[in-house]
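Researcher: Sequence of Multidrug ABC transporter ATP-binding protein follows. Predict its structure.
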Amino acid sequence: MRPDQSTWTPSPAEGEQPRQVRRILKLFRPYRGRLAIVGLLVGASSLVTVATPFLLKETLDVAIPQGRTGLLSLLALGMILSAVVTGIFGVLQTLISTTVGQRVMHDLRTAVYGRLQRMSLAFFTRTRTGEVQSRIANDIGGMQATVTSTATSLVSNLTSVVATIVAMVALDWRLTVVSLLLLPVFVWISRRVGNERKKIATQRQKQMAAMAATVTESLSVSGILLGRTMGRGDSLTKAFEAESDSLVDLEVKSNMAGRWRMSVIGIVMAAMPAVIYWAAGMALQFGGPSVSIGTLVAFVSLQQGLFRPTVSLLSTGVQIQTSLALFQRIFEYLDLPIDITEPERPVHLDQVKGEIRFEDVEFRYDDKSGPILEGIDITVPAGGSLAVVGPTGSGKSTLSYLVPRLYDVTGGRVTLDGVDVRDLDFDTLARGIGVVSQETYLFHASVADNLRFARPDATDEELQAAARAAQIHDHIASLPDGYDTVVGERGHRFSGGEKQRLAIARTILRDPPVLILDEATSALDTRTEYAVQEAIDALSANRTTLTIAHRLSTIRGADQIVVLDSGRAVERGTHEELLEREGRYAALVHRDAELEPTR
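Model: Prediction complete. Tokens:
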């Protein structure tokens, strides 16, 4: 059973919230031991905090009126110790909960990055780089406060509210009823506010992703070059200004959503002590049960203590609703189907000889598009060379990408040493197949670091040997910092030919038995091409080589040349055989010869 080739679409948000909450709770499961400690600290802190008003009641009703200085000292000491213990417990629970929250965020970032590393090349061809970066940086970063503090805040405030209400009932149940009359209304208001902010948060994160994509594309070296040379700097600035302005509106809406309603809750809660005093006074005035000064002060103290965790609890609920939008975007990436997977029992080749076969190969991007390749049957013996030519869009690069499984065939199969590449483990493919493409990618690091990306354990002598084989050692040695020279963003401190030779040196260091050259010299001038071609010839020696050729002068010595047109192999043979047929290949050679003087 081969991996499903269907494209991914985001799951609908409606009806997903209970499942989403379960997934969020599952993230904390590995840290349940530490969270249990936090729970104990929270419970102990809440009990100590609730005890303080009872100490205050005894102080006002007993110790001071009766002049019991010893008891007064003990009660005062108890209140001081309560504050000290609460402070210590608060620091400990903050340390543990923050550590757990940061580990959860680390797990999320790693999971998303690992998932994206396993996606096929097709995913990245249809997804903006800035969008991917925004999911990892902005979305996960936006959840930081929620993940690091919400769980603790929820448990702490809930415990405090329950303990405080119990203590209030113990002091006077009638005043407790008066205090809690409006609580259900407050809960309803906070849920409404949370839903509003969740919707706005979804729009805000999409806008942040769009802005991040614009920054990534327009402020890269290539983007700056294009903008400057096209005279589009001002228009790009205005486009960014418009996107940033939209983000400002969404940020304001997010912060102001339900702000008045939440302020009303705060005003009402702050006014409750006045209501309590009024209710106690009216009850006494009309012959109701009297309440001692100590009880009244202790109750108001508890009621004020109830105010902070209740408002915090309602705010936490709003924050959770908002964060659900961020979690949804992260879970969308974690739920991306991986269409290129390693089989359950992969085949491992200790030594790759290099025979490649394309057996009735078909490839299409999805069920809705037509075939990019169709009916391809080609055999390349170990150590042999195959060149693939044809007009733009004929499927040449796609054919080469099927060998290292950057794409998977949708029909037929591709084999390496007689084994379907889909049955091989990824280590065998990575170790056995090297790719040098026209789009050379270098990291913003030193020359040595870029070369060692192929083999981290390579010695300096091995780096230099690979660079010599790639005809680039002398240039590197002439630089002030030699192999420690930083190549710059995407290698822009080096010319096109130098970057290509660095890529070839990197592949030589990897030493793969199978080599794929995807138009590796098409963007170079003739003089540079010759230098790079010498490096390629050194690299190709005694390897199975598949060359995607733009300039036909570079592939005349290939053992076999295949001409693709509209995804089909229309001609094949050696250079001389194809010239004698005077078919499409011969026409391409004549056209190439006519263009050669202009290069």
